[in-house]
Specification:
The protein is α/β, with parallel strands linked by helices. It has helices spanning 41-58, 81-94, 105-113, 154-170, 177-185, 194-201, 205-209, 212-220, 224-242, 260-264, 266-276, 289-301, and strands at 2-9, 13-20, 25-32, 67-74, 99-104, 119-124, 128-134, 137-142, 253-258, 280-283. Helix 2 links the parallel strand 4 and strand 5.
Length: 302
């Protein structure tokens, strides 16, 4: 039996999905991230080895008669040559003797989301990036990371929220519901206490990004500042998409959306839709990114 293992190695988790030659999901394993910007080389290697071994055990893999091809979509496998080389080295150590191929995690999400067809992928979660596919050509916008970009992402929304809180605390802008809401949410007696609280409890990018849900809640309650933040985020995400409009002769083109922010925020979805029509339209993914990796490796190795 031929098996095709798709690995979605993102910034928060590593998902292993194994399909047989008939396209049936036969095993699934979920482990912590193997992203080399977040864990050590040894931790990443151990993650991949553990996942593959657990999959093999689940399908009762027999080396004499079965064949396993592994498609990996790994965060960070892009333009940075040093990081790309480190990821390749890690995979060589983890998957010695295995048949595998590496792609970027956005590429497998695009392929799975559109089942190999032309279109675009918008990832708006902790970070933000757009990947477009037209024939054999791939184009990217965004994905510069939180220090240089990630506009319209959950992290970006959280930063905007806190910035407006400090401005309202100073009197640099009029206080809205946002100010009282955060004072109550964080149980603050004095606005200045938020400095130590954020440093203590929200020091990482992923922790801070969780505060984006507060922007949505405030916007839904009618807070004008929160609504403006949502509108700005929508414009940033729309800009990431619209810079690719000249790559497609046929329009409108589908945009697959992935990421907790865009998937769970109806206000943001609706505003992005308004801004990108009639060039593009938002749609749900056909398959998961891990499934996309399994399809890609099946196409690559047969």
């Amino acid at each position: 039996m031929k098996y095709y293992l798709g690995v979605d190695g993102g910034g928060t988790k590593t998902l292993f999905e194994c399909y047989d030659e008939n396209g049936k999901l036969v095993a699934q394993v979920k482990l912590p991230t193997c992203h080399l910007l977040q864990v050590s080389m040894d931790q990443a290697r151990e993650c991949l080895q553990t996942g593959v071994n657990q999959i093999k055990s689940a399908i009762a893999f027999k080396p004499q008669s079965d064949q396993l091809s592994i498609g990996l979509g790994l965060a960070g496998y892009g333009a940075n040559a040093d990081l790309r080389q480190a990821i390749e080295q890690m995979c060589q150590l983890a998957l010695k003797g295995e048949r595998y191929h590496i792609w970027n995690d956005a590429e497998i999400a695009l392929y799975g989301g559109l089942n190999g067809q032309d279109g675009l992928l918008l990832i708006a979660g902790t970070g933000s990036i757009v990947l477009a596919k037209e024939g054999n050509h791939f184009y990217r916008s965004g994905g510069w990371g939180y220090l240089l970009g990630d506009e319209g992402s959950a992290y970006w929304l959280a930063k905007q929220l806190l910035n407006h809180f400090t401005r309202q605390a100073d009197g640099r802008e009029a206080r809205t519901r946002l100010y009282a809401y955060l004072m109550d949410y964080f149980h603050l007696d004095d606005a200045g206490e938020i400095i130590q609280l954020i440093a203590r409890d929200y020091s990482s990018r992923t922790q801070l990004a969780k505060l984006a849900v507060l922007v949505s809640q405030l916007a839904e309650s009618g807070d004008a500042v929160a609504i403006d933040i949502i509108n700005q985020a929508a414009q940033e995400l729309a800009d990431l998409l619209l810079c690719h409009q000249d790559h497609f002769d046929q329009q409108p083109m589908p945009v697959v959306t992935i990421g907790g922010l865009i998937e769970n925020n109806v206000l943001l979805q609706n505003r992005v839709t308004e801004l990108i029509e009639p060039k593009f339209y938002l749609t749900k993914a056909c398959y998961s990114p891990a499934r996309g990796a399994s399809l890609l490796v099946k196409e690559f190795y047969g």
